[in-house]
User: Fold 3-dehydroquinate synthase from Gilvimarinus xylanilyticus.
Amino acid sequence: MKTLQVDLGERSYPIYIGEQLLTDAQCFIPHIKGKQVCIVTNETIAPLYLQPLSDLLIDAGFTLETVVLPDGEAHKNLDTLNLIFDKLLGSRFNRQATLVALGGGVVGDMTGFAAASYQRGVNFIQVPTTLLSMVDSSVGGKTGVNHALGKNMIGAFYQPQAVIADVSVLRSLPVRELAAGVAEVIKYGLICDAEFFEWLEDNIAAVMSGDARAQIYSVVRSCEDKARVVAADEREGGIRAILNLGHTFGHAIETAQGYGNWLHGEAVATGMLMAIDLSCRMGKVERTVYERAERLLKAAELPTRSPKDMSNDQFLALMAVDKKALDGGLRLVLMEALGQAYVTADFAHSLLEQTLDHARNG
Amino acid sequence: MKTLQVDLGERSYPIYIGEQLLTDAQCFIPHIKGKQVCIVTNETIAPLYLQPLSDLLIDAGFTLETVVLPDGEAHKNLDTLNLIFDKLLGSRFNRQATLVALGGGVVGDMTGFAAASYQRGVNFIQVPTTLLSMVDSSVGGKTGVNHALGKNMIGAFYQPQAVIADVSVLRSLPVRELAAGVAEVIKYGLICDAEFFEWLEDNIAAVMSGDARAQIYSVVRSCEDKARVVAADEREGGIRAILNLGHTFGHAIETAQGYGNWLHGEAVATGMLMAIDLSCRMGKVERTVYERAERLLKAAELPTRSPKDMSNDQFLALMAVDKKALDGGLRLVLMEALGQAYVTADFAHSLLEQTLDHARNG
Assistant:
């Protein structure tokens, strides 16, 4: 087991990354201060992992409640959030209560926001069950729910007491979801860690085939990279935006295709290539960077072309309503070297059009 | 105009207290960083003060939206909160937006929580329009909404950019609501400021009759007192609990009588006398403290007797479900001297029963 300490002053917390951690009481117990614990999970995860984790907590003497939410992004809203509050209040949970988020990003985001808001803040522990949530939600403190008019528009910055990333659970993850997580792993290499990118080029087969050591290293290195970026910008005013490499293009694809048809990580994979392509056209990076990224994404079974039925105009319209563009001028995360991303509103519209054409047609 | 700086490090903010501040652009403009401003108010306040404040902000060049909520504690819930998010997202408000809470405690609590949660946090300015909210909500950062199973159970600690307390608006306040605010003013004297208590004994008629200087002084001193207590305990772990003098008794009255039949401040007034009475019976304070408090509350036209139809058993049952008692043992805020309150679970049940009898029968 590896332990990574996320250093945020009095809000610091550890990330434990290893195998068989869901049955390791010592990962959980030191981070629970009261007697009341509520596990929040979803219908898909509950049959797989709820029982062993419940047993562990009951054996340790805690008063345990569980909330099983419906699965999927469509339920990530205030109404579903209220199901958590119903359970906590119905069970008379107090301010010393601890919530445990057992699931992927949706469960983590909602449970974290419930913890941030219940009696104005109780403790929570994150137990991510997808590769994407291990590398994306373990660091950064973003919690929240969607609104009919926008994703993640209601929420809080709120840190967990601990994150327990057990790569053993990735064995039950569909390969398409594993790949979607790998897209975010590759992102860290691209934006801030060229050495890690090279390691991934050599080890992508091991990561995809379920090799625990390779998966643990991928999660550790991704979390370290993200922690470094976030530490410089906890509440998201500046440099942290590089974490959105590929996301503005990707959100346009997700929106156009309907959420769930393209997984988030798949859309980001294609979006990252588009950002690199534009960077090449602007003369910021060599075309070989694009080719290496494309090869790596393909090895991870990720899409590298945008949908055939999306016109440039549709792309541009959807990119302009992306959350990061609400301020006015469209800003993009681009690359100036392998392992070095930057944020800019300074790019030629004609080159962007070329990138959109290229992404669709190759 | 008096300015009181609430010192909370990078979350510090000023409270402006004076007359005709609602039309004073210099109170508002320095605290708005973006171009988008949304005033949140309610149906009762809107006809009185929305127009002049809107004019001020439009004249200053801001993009202005307004949300007029239904009035009353019954609407302080997640559904009403969503009306604010609907407006903000429908108007494409960004992270530089500023919310302005124009109203009493309910509007302030909901707007503050909306600001804490919208895009994980935007700025807000509080413009309290009741004496209660001027002295109770200006300091402390408590925001939130009710849940069907409990008051203020969902929320955040979140600080405003500024509080603008314009005592001119108190002239339109019904005398019963003015008195309810005075109950909380008197509370500060009782719990931590004997000198202020004595000032109130001399000046209560001026405060009640609408004398601006006396009202400004009351708000300034109350906010100073509260800031001192809160500064020692921003996230409410210990000493801050003395701010709840009379509240456990008071909540029992409010619950038994139905919210709105007794105003919060009225229930707190009676509850404070009960806490002092119990303190007297325990030998902590002289009976003269009780008599002086009773005289002052009566001069402020506040009730000093609990409802005739509430039995001791009903009181005790309702006190045990008070939020502060969720941990187990019932803790009460009691007095050990005029201007000195403390929190304890150490009191004889028989004396508490005597206090309950006395409060009802005199």
The mean pLDDT of chain B is 94. The two ends of chain B are 43 Å apart (CA to CA). Chain B touches chain A at residues 78, 81-82, 85-86, 89-90, 92-96, 116-121, 142-144, 147, 149-150, 153-157, 235-236, 323, 326-327 (CB under 8 Å).
